[in-house]
Every structure is written in C-alpha cells, then in structure tokens.
Design goal:
The protein contains three helices and two strands; from the N terminus they run βαβαα. By secondary structure, it is mainly α. Strands 1-2 form a two-stranded parallel ribbon.
C-alpha cells in the first residue's frame, strides 16, 4: 500500500468519506495545487490511454471480466 495518494481538487475528493477511508488505511492525501493540472499530468495521461485503448474498445460483463481483459 502506498504511503500517499495524489488527487486533484475535484468534487469527488472533497467529502469526508475519502478522508475517513484514507485515515483508516494510514494514507496521506496529497492534493495538487488548484489551477495546476500539470501536477497530475502522469495519471491524466494514463487514464486517457486506458480509456482509449481498453475501456472504449471493450464490453465488460462483470468486474471480474473487466479485470481479466485489462490485465491481458
């Protein structure tokens, strides 16, 4: 398990649920600087390629099916 997770400032990361989840797993949440998406460029690039090369090109019937197709 990583010691920290870098997240942007989107609304999905603003709630107390994520804070509690990270706290109980002893993870630090590192927020990028507002207005500086370049700080999160690596993961944005990865997510875009995953979406374009795998998610948009496949039909998944279950989480297990998705995991199998993504890993191969």
């Amino acid at each position: 398990m990583p010691a920290s997770i870098t997240v942007d400032n989107g609304s999905e990361f603003a709630g107390k649920d994520l804070d509690a989840w990270a706290y109980w797993r002893k993870l630090q949440l590192d927020f990028i600087t507002p207005g500086k998406p370049v700080e999160n460029a690596y993961i944005e690039s990865f997510n875009g390629r995953l979406r374009d090369e795998c998610l948009n090109a496949s039909l998944f019937y279950s989480v297990a099916d998705a995991a199998l197709k993504i890993e191969t």
